[in-house]
Specification:
about 110 residues, alpha/beta, Transcription Regulator spoIIAA, five-stranded mixed sheet, 4 helices, 5 strands, about 40% helix
Length: about 110
């Protein structure tokens, strides 16, 4: 998995790539957690370059959403490919997550 991070207008943007699975999610969590502990409350995760997501990826999204909700923060995700979107829909997580087509749409909705 690859990822980059940017902080713009009080929003932490994380652009993910590759597989979001049991191997990669602990790495991403360890990268995101310090920002949450520091008090950052708004996160935008871009899945533009994600090719695969397992149930561990779903768990990562829900855990991150819960942490941010406790801080009255927000998590938004965008640019999901068909596979990732299907995994989220089948699991029913689309009812709990804020999903956007583009990074721009998600960014504007904060």
């Amino acid at each position: 998995m690859e990822f980059t991070t940017e902080y713009r207008d009080q929003i932490r943007i994380v652009r993910l790539g590759g597989s979001v699975d049991s191997v990669s999610t602990p790495i991403v969590e360890s990268m995101i957690d310090p920002f949450i502990k520091k008090g950052e409350e708004k996160f935008l995760l871009s899945f533009e370059n994600v090719t695969y997501m397992s149930s561990a990826g779903l768990r990562f999204l829900l855990v991150t959403e819960k942490k941010l909700r406790q801080l009255l923060g927000k998590l938004k995700i965008c640019q999901l490919n068909e596979h990732v979107l299907e995994v989220i829909h089948i699991s029913g997580f689309d009812k709990y997550l804020h999903i956007y087509e583009t990074e721009e749409d998600a960014f504007k909705d904060f």
